[in-house]
Amino acid sequence: MEECNWMDLWRKLVMRGFRPKGEGMVEKYKAHARKKKERPDALLNFILEEMDAGDTVLEIGPGTGRWTIPLAGTGRKVTAIEPTAAMADMLRENLGRAGIQNAEIQLQSWEDASPGMHDLVICAHGMYGSPDLAAFVRKMEQCARKRCYLAIRLPPADGILGELSLKISGCRHDSPDAIIAYNALYTLGIYANVLIEEGMTNWVNVSLEDAVRRARKHLNLGISEAYDDLISSTLNRRLKFSGGVYTWPDGMRSALLWWRPASNEKTIMSS
Q1: How buried is 73 (Cβ within 10 angstroms: 0-12 exposed, 13-18 middle, 19+ buried)?
Q2: How crowded is residue 82: how many other Cβ atoms within 10 Å of its Cβ?
Q3: Do 257 and 188 contact (CB within 8 A), yes or no?
Q4: CB 235 within 8 A of CB 212
């Protein structure tokens, strides 16, 4: 059996699904952030409980500030690296509304940023557009005194998208996810700790046609109808129809991968 190259798989899936962030994407992100606020965030709460009041935080891809605001409220300072101007404007507005004065926004990509050392380096779902995961992670380590954190989606093991992706692309992973990231980190000699959300919100669609469109989008098929028969038959078999809507067994948990950078590990072992 051929051994999986997890870094190559990550790169392949990033490039297959790459889309530049436009204004529409920003609005969608904003709506998603509002939904996430409605339920507790165990991964964020874990980080906040581990933080010291004097910690400085470097946050990569802060989006609307869903994590930035509580991180700034707990630590001494947050430096937020955000490459999209519209998103940075929204973040600035949300920080001002929350009365946060100890957060700095740097409008640039993580690849181009030179933020200096911070106690904690955190990226919550901001790595999906970066094909070189090894470079992304090594730069996190270079900037972290204490710990690095990656919050990343974790699809269900028996999900519909996994089944379809395997049949269409020959790979169960339809996009970059926590399984690929964990194994990729392992190949770098990083033994990450893992914390997984308990709750999962299942997707629903009002019609089978809407569900087919959703599957096409997640499988990066665009508007192509080449696999619609396969998708429709799979959805007919696996979706549950109740209360006038189709409910997926899929849904998305998030996993938190966290570790101490190598230099920090050496310090602990020698002390």
Answers
A1: middle
A2: 28
A3: no
A4: yes
Instruction: Give per-residue pLDDT as tens, 153-173.
Output: 999 988 999 999 999 999 999
Say whether pTM exceeds 0.85.
yes
Residue 38 confidence (pLDDT) above 60: no
CB 79 within 8 A of CB 102: no
**For the chain, how many residues are written?**
271
Query: At a CB cut-off of 8 Å and minimum separation 6, what does 66 contact?
Result: 33, 36, 37, 41, 44, 124
Output the 3-class SS for the chain.
CCCCCHHHHHHHHHHHHCCCCCHHHHHHHHHHHHHHHCCCCHHHHHHHHHCCCCCEEEEECCCCCCCHHHHHHHCCEEEEECCCHHHHHHHHHHHHHCCCCCEEEECCCCCCCCCCCEEEEEEECCCCCCCCHHHHHHHHHHHEEEEEEEEEEECCCCCHHHHHHHHHHCCCCCCCCHHHHHHHHHHCCCCCEEEECCCCCEEEECCHHHHHHHHHHHCCCCCCCCCHHHHHHHHHHHCEEECCEEEEEEECEEEEEEECCHHHHHHHHHC
User: In this structure, what token pair is assigned to residue 223?
Assistant: 């508007």
Question: With 80 as the cut, is the pLDDT of residue 94 above it?
Answer: yes
**Residue in the structure block whose two tokens are 């990226």:** 123
Q: At 112, give phi and psi (nearest 5°).
A: -95, -10
Give 254's strand partners. 153
Distance CA 32, CA 4 (A): 33
| pLDDT, mean over the chain | 90
